[in-house]
User: Fold these one by one.
Assistant:
Number 1:
Amino acid sequence: MVRDREHRLTGARIRARRAERRMTQAALAEAAGISASYLNLIEHDKRRIGGGVLGRVARALGTDPATLTEGLGPDLYAALESVAERIPSNPPPERDRIDGLATDYPGWAALIAALDTRVAALEHRITALGERMSHDPVLSEAVHDVLSTVTAIRSTAGILAEDGLDPQWQARFHRNLHEDSQRLADGAQRLAGYLNVGEAANSDAVSPQEEVEAWLSANDWSLDMSESCGLSEAGETALARHTARVTADADCLPDEALRAALKEVGLDPFRLADTLGAPVTRVIRRLAALPARAMPRPLGLVEIDGAGALLFRRQVTGFLIPRYGAACALWPVFEALLTPAHPIHRRFRQHGRDTRPLESWSAVDLTRPGGLAGPVVARAVMLVAPLEGVAGDGVPETVGASCALCPAPACPVRRESAVL
């Protein structure tokens, strides 16, 4: 389909290139050794052009044949299609004329695609900042301290503005004003420093677990300790706990057995668990602990406790996992918590810009660390992977990331308004 479209547009590209060079149709036809009438048919895509003629036309136009036959490629076409589909306008864009836009105005088409990429990056940044403003405890405390100090300074200034204030009290209030202003300056400086640190990649981790996740992501989820981790003391402790757990899972389910089963049944944790005779939760954790380069598809992982708190995250494209606050209550892993005896396989898409078909496998572990007299402890895992061979519109958008980040207009489980 793409190839047919490109062939149809070869003539339009020849016409556009000729117009750019201010070359008449007769002059180009003469240089290519064909008649002007035949070139006219080619330029209006009413005749296909042979390889020899194409080569002569390309030389006359100062370009190469591939540029005339392939244009700017399917990536630009797909980018313009995406813009037309996602961004509403009145009147709506003429989607049936995208080919003409990319052919006749390649610079403008590339600029539209580049602006869309920039808008996507800015939206992602705004979303991350909105989530951080809503749920980051360190940021909330810093902002609260600044606002409290501003309120104190305003009250002191109001008292000092009154007439007839005793000199002793006036001196005391002046001293308070000086101390509060100094505290405000220090608090604002700390707040600015904290926000600036958050701009750097992987430096905005505010918990040891986030340090571990960032380190693992940078190392392709490999636990190779040949080089210094560069983590804080608390981060190294959290990494040691994670390593011990991964090692314990690997002892029970070695790499060789897992990789052999993967070749036999494919990426399906439930079938793998049956083949290997292992718990589904262990199989999911083992798959998520393997390097990305060793897997047939990219994988993401979510691990939660019985209260729904996120304990571990492995990001995958198309599935946004919030760093702060509660996740979307419609995630399949929360459904699995309600039916711990029945693992759940679901297909879904997540609301948002980078929506794509996904599938997930969720399962729950129930343990009694304190013995039969102790409480039941639940820990659930959800493996997420891109769904191959399925059109995007074939899977409904059924989940979000969190309420603050979800644009769904009507959701039965919404707890708060969206930031955007």
Number 2:
Amino acid sequence: MSVVQLIRKQKPRIANRYFKGEIDGADFTAKVFDIKKNEDRWTLTASKVDDDLVKHQIQLVFPASFEKRIYKLEEHLDDIRLTYSTNSLLDPILRYGASGLIDLTTVDPANTHVAGALQNILTRDDGNPVSTITALFDLS
């Protein structure tokens, strides 16, 4: 094996992180990501800034004990917190997920890596308009 072949084999892979989806039919392609795991919880945060300089953010928090599988949000409201918020001065938003599916396809604590999907997440009917959130994500 030549030196060139050896170097090519050892080339590190760059992770493609993404959080892409829709909120009420509007594009939500996050540009900023954060993933944290402490002893008992995962926290995934994805945000974007729109043309009016309003920050839109989705945050998903769930127990570190969760494994690869599909979770019904309405059955785990004590364990899972999903929020959608904006920092708009004219129309701030803070909405909490109430139902829908969270499909965790990868949960890798050793590499701080989580991938999956949010499927038809509906926010709480608490007097604010109900939003629908759908997304695919792969964060590490």
Number 3:
Amino acid sequence: MSPLLSLTLGISGFLMSKPIDYSKFDNIDSGDESDHAADLSPAPATAAAATVSQVARGTTKKHPTIPDRYIFSHNNQPIYEWEQSLEEVTIYITAPPLPSQSPASYIIINIDANHLQVGLKGHDRFFIDETTFDKVKTKESSWYLDDGIITIILAKAFRGQTWEGVLNGANAKANNNESNTVIQESVDPFVKQEMQRTMMLERFQEENPGFDFRDATFNGEVPNPRTFMGGVGYNH
């Protein structure tokens, strides 16, 4: 295991692994090492979307120590960690070095119904500028910075829907010429089944609070937690 992945810190009652120091926070796929996230200015300008010639295809794998947490990596480098519940998807990003005074004010995060942008003021591109895996309820979504970790909470528009990743990639289905940078996540069938299992057990626990489903198993393929047996309830 990478030493970077072995680092953990306490934040808001849970463990957060610290995957990488983003010296190039605003450009995950550029080979130009001259971009420095610490070179910040409090300019009010909004970061613009990147236009480069690579497709950032990554993989999603289970976290080695935190249950039901996943790590999205690109070129074998962890980019962010994430987890989900019936209600929401939570993303954890290690922030670059920021000024000690009002550090959150230097961060730009835009959450739309089908799109997520993460960047820094004064920079000309976003670190993340992609479509989300599924639709988001923007008014119920939020983000905060705590102890060097950017936490983004995306409220699911469809309660109980299993997200196989956080991002689809803005042009993932548009064409094959790879003229724009997109972030595309992929999971193997086993990981997808693990995600479905976690969601189903959360639903069972919610609907049957007197039982303990932590060690429950499924015979065969795990059913869809949103549609199984009449569908998940929306009155919670």
Number 4:
Amino acid sequence: MEKGKVSITMAIWLAVLLIILGVIGGAVLGFFGARRYMKNYFRDNPPINEDMLRSMMMQMGQKPSEKKLNQMMASMRQQEAKK
């Protein structure tokens, strides 16, 4: 084998290896970046649960019945599904 052909083959393998490592590294960094973003998002904008709705209704002077709470939760889920 000629010396020139060996170095071309090694260069191709090196390029393939670097591309694979780049893709894996990007996936790992993307995963942790998205995870951090979602943690911050949920810390700043927590999802509303039934207890929060109950306290909001009590603050507005309404008596929170289970039927009304279930209707409001179903309405909120339906609004989220539309998005």
